[in-house]
Specification:
30-stranded mixed β-sheet, 46% strand, 677 residues, alpha+beta, single chain
């Protein structure tokens, strides 16, 4: 028995010696370069592309399995501008052979020098990274239609290694070029350098990466790992610092879990203040937003925790700095295909006017034919069809709140803004919406629907105690009305283009101004004297104005035409009734104002007669240049109609025709005499 064991050990030892001797001596006696033409032929046949490698081709098997070569070329198929798809200046790798039998990977050196990859789209739209050739055996490189593709394993076992060690990994002078011959575009990542040293499964891996993107520097430094004995499984810590284009500096600290099977991440992100505009300039691109303020989005910073997986992402608490604004927020997005987004945002202050689209030059107002805006409704038919694709919004579910301490929009200054947003399947609601503005408050709700191709919007607002004068000055740049405003407004509209919105605007409302004044016109002067009222006499030192205790404006809007039939104004000396239309599309006015004399000034104790006549006022022209003129024809018609019954009675009497004619003549003279006053 002992003799058999002895001979067994001797034979085994001899076999091991022979194997080792073969591994050591075989590369010395076999010139691999003799097989270089065969290797090049087989690779060319397999890829369908020209392949060549330099004469400096070496293989070693013991104690390290090693491969080195230089001047490798894998070409492009015909029809591409670049000759090579892949070029490698030199490559060298050495791996210990025997430890591989025991799942112990020991790489002494891995060096890749001068690698260049070109990704090209030619003028015909073909790309060079697709391989459609047939292998040498005659089988198609594409998977047969009848072949079964094994499903991805859900067990997530990964690769179970006993140990892993990498003495040195170095990639230097690498580059990746992207070309689109159709658009004459070329982008390049050059000077790629990657250095890893003393890598193992149980220790953090030091990482140093640098490159230039279109000539601008990009670098990543830090530590990754330990990655554990089952790479791709478990938790992998990381701590990285990213610097891009000499503009942006990001620090990331956290971990990635199961990156090979079910990747998840959780990390703290600190983005130092930078200028997005300068970053885009450094990248050679135009800033994508055209803002009213060309300096907007000039400063940005972020700090917060970011976590998620392949289907979900959340920021439990984040802080975003944008110019002079600071926002604290929470956001969670689930199921990216049909996203469900929950958020809460609190902003200290923001001037939205800076971020609105830059205004184009004003187009000339189209003049309407006829007597006024009432004929503008006969313009071309409304086409509210939208060219935008709203299908992503139809797959979105929203639920969130927004709070803003101070908000400026369209030059209106508001405070304590709060709104709640909910929506799904293309129907979104803002309810409630509350804010404070100009010593008053506003509340309301809104609806925005993209369930159809044409968007629809519905808005309901209530205002109470709002100081109208500064609001109108800020928003309209017009100082023509004072008073404390109370209002109810309900408006609906279609489309997403401003012109279409104005054409489809429909709704109603009720505006009530208390204790104010209408500037630019003096109704009391109208009662006393036509010349003074309409600037035909010498102007006084004080600008004309009409004080009122109440101005009530009920209105309706139909297809962009504002209409009121019962607007009233109450002042100490006159009462005013107004009716007419305002065309919001063509910005034309067509109103008639009828002032009436108040019999007494001091109430029942004042019996003084008020002299003067009632002068109706016609308001026409445009929003920017309204025109006021007395309606003398209408006034004369009213006076005649008022005295006509008396004339008719006299004509029916028994007096002679001569006396009747004389009476009528006296009546007409009386009317003209009154008009002369």
């Amino acid at each position: 028995m002992n003799r058999a064991i002895k001979w067994g050990l001797i034979i085994s030892g001899c076999l091991v010696v022979l194997i080792i001797a073969g591994l050591v001596l075989l590369p010395r006696f076999v010139d691999v370069r003799r097989y270089k033409p065969l290797i090049e032929e087989q690779v060319t046949k397999a890829t369908g592309r020209p392949f060549s490698v330099g004469d400096d081709l070496h293989i070693s098997l013991f104690p390290y399995a090693g491969v080195s070569f230089s001047d490798l070329h894998l070409g492009n198929p015909p029809g591409f501008e670049e000759k090579d798809f892949v070029f490698v200046k030199s490559f060298f790798v050495r791996v210990k052979l025997l430890p591989l039998l025991f799942r112990d990977v020991q790489v002494k050196r891995f060096i890749l020098n001068g690698a260049r990859i070109v990704l090209e789209t030619n003028k015909d739209g073909r790309v060079n990274w697709e391989f459609n050739s047939k292998a040498g055996s005659g089988t198609s490189a594409k998977t047969s239609a009848n072949a079964q593709i094994p499903e991805k394993s859900e067990t997530g076992n990964g690769v179970n290694l006993k140990a892993f060690a990498l003495g040195e990994l170095e990639v230097k002078d690498g580059s990746v070029v992207w070309m689109d011959d159709r658009k004459k575009l070329r982008r390049e990542i050059s000077d790629v350098t990657l250095l890893l040293q003393n890598v193992s499964l149980e220790r953090p891996i030091g990482l140093a990466f640098s490159a230039k993107v279109d000539g601008q520097p990009l670098s990543v430094d830090g530590n990754v790992g330990p990655i554990g004995k089952m790479p791709g499984k478990g938790m992998i810590p990381l701590k990285l610092s990213v610097r891009a284009f000499e503009q942006m500096d990001v620090k990331i600290k956290g971990h990635v879990t199961d990156p090979a099977t079910h990747p998840k991440f959780e990390m703290d992100v600190n983005l130092s203040p930078f200028s997005p505009r300068k970053l885009m300039t450094a990248m050679g691109k135009t800033f994508p937003l055209s803002t009213a303020d060309p300096q907007a989005v000039g400063r940005m910073a972020f700090n917060g925790e970011v976590k998620g997986d392949m289907k979900n992402i959340s920021i439990p608490k984040g802080v975003l700095d944008l110019d002079e604004s600071k926002a604290t927020f929470m956001i969670q997005a689930d199921n990216f295909d049909h996203a469900r987004v929950t958020f809460n945002v609190a902003v200290d202050q923001i001037d939205m006017d800076r971020y609105l689209p830059a205004q184009d030059e004003k187009k000339p107002v189209r003049k309407t034919t006829g007597s006024g805006a009432s004929k503008a409704k006969k313009s071309e038919p409304i086409n509210a069809k939208s060219e935008a694709d709203y299908s992503p919004l139809r797959r979105l579910t929203l639920n969130g709140t927004v709070r803003i301490d101070k908000l400026k929009i369209k030059n209106a200054k508001t405070e304590s803004v709060y709104l709640k947003v909910t929506g799904e399947k293309g129907l979104f609601e803002l309810q409630p919406v509350t804010l404070e503005l100009y010593q008053g408050k506003m509340s309301g709700k809104g609806m925005f629907s993209v369930q159809q191709d044409v968007p629809k919007t519905d808005i309901q607002l209530e205002l109470n105690g709002v100081n109208a004068a500064p609001l109108l000055v800020d928003v309209l740049k017009k100082d023509f009305l004072e008073g404390v405003l109370k209002a109810k407004i309900h408006l609906g509209m279609k489309g997403d283009d401003p012109v279409v919105i104005r054409k489809t605007l429909t709704g109603n409302g009720d505006l009530l101004f208390k204790n104010g004044a209408v500037k630019g016109i003096n109704l009391q002067a109208m009662v006393q004297n036509v010349k003074t009222a309409f600037g035909l006499a010498e102007k006084g030192e004080n600008a004309p104005r009409t004080d009122f205790s109440e101005l009530h404006i009920p209105f309706s809007v139909q297809n962009g035409v504002f209409r009121t039939t019962a607007t009233t104004l109450t002042s100490p000396l006159v009462r005013l009734k107004a009716s007419g239309v305002a065309d919001l599309v063509n910005q034309r006015l067509d109103f008639r104002l009828e002032p009436k004399v108040v019999a007494t000034l001091k109430g029942q104790g004042d019996t003084e007669n008020r002299s003067g006549i009632m002068v109706p006022v016609l308001v026409a022209g445009t929003f920017s240049s309204p025109e006021f003129r007395p309606d003398l024809q209408g006034m004369l018609k009213q006076e005649i109609e008022k005295r006509l019954p008396d004339l008719q009675k006299q004509l029916k009497g028994n007096e002679s025709s001569k006396e009747n004619s004389q009476t009528m003549e006296d009546q007409v003279k009386g009317i003209l005499k009154l008009f002369g006053k």
